[in-house]
């Protein structure tokens, strides 16, 4: 998943939450949108953490680090603003204890998501790193073999 798609998903859920709040709906009626926003926020946080130490293949084949850092920074501020508005609404209407409850539920969801989805992505990254390393190893071995073969042929050893 990319940063932009996470932010777009979170923005869509956030707009649905704001319109439901404006229509006077209760928090229990908005659990679907809140859950969708929480997933998008969790995915964004995971991407941000992965970008701090990207896999080898991403370091090699992606654009500039500055471009990625600026994109993450701008979107992080947007996500934080949405989170603050959701926190204010929940705390205002249901009290600070409700926000703590939401945070506890969010932590459980994040842990479950990390165990399921993010671990799969880490395994895929490790497999891609291994494949690229293996290809580099084969190419360098082939080049060394050719060099030694032509040196030996030039010297008349074979």
Give a structural overview.
The termini are far apart. The protein has helices at 3-22, 31-52, 56-61, 65-94, 96-155. Helix 1 packs antiparallel against helix 2 (31-52) and helix 4 (65-94) packs antiparallel against helix 5. The radius of gyration is 24 Å and the shape is elongated. With 158 residues, the chain is mainly alpha-helical.
Number of strands: 0
Total of helices: 5
The topology string of helices and strands comes to HHHHH
Structural class: mainly alpha
Quaternary organisation? single chain
Percentage of β-strand residues = under 5%
Global outline: elongated
The average pLDDT value, as a whole number, equals 82
Query: Largest sheet, described in full?
Result: none
* Helix content estimate: over 70%
Radius of gyration: 24 Å
Distance between the termini: 54 Å
Low-pLDDT residue spans: none
């Amino acid at each position: 998943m990319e940063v932009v798609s996470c932010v777009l998903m979170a923005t869509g859920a956030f707009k649905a939450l704001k319109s439901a709040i404006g229509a006077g709906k209760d928090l229990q009626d908005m659990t679907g949108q809140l859950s969708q926003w929480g997933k998008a926020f969790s995915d964004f946080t995971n991407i941000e953490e992965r970008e701090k130490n990207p896999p080898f293949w991403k370091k090699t084949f992606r654009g500039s680090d500055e471009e990625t850092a600026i994109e993450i920074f701008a979107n992080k501020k947007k996500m934080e603003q949405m989170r603050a508005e959701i926190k204010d609404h929940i705390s205002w209407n249901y009290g600070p204890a409700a926000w703590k409850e939401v945070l506890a539920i969010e932590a459980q969801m994040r842990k479950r998501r990390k165990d399921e989805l993010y671990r799969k992505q880490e395994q895929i990254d490790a497999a891609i790193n291994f494949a690229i390393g293996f290809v580099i190893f084969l190419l360098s071995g082939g080049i060394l073999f050719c060099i030694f073969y032509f040196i030996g042929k030039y010297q008349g050893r074979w």
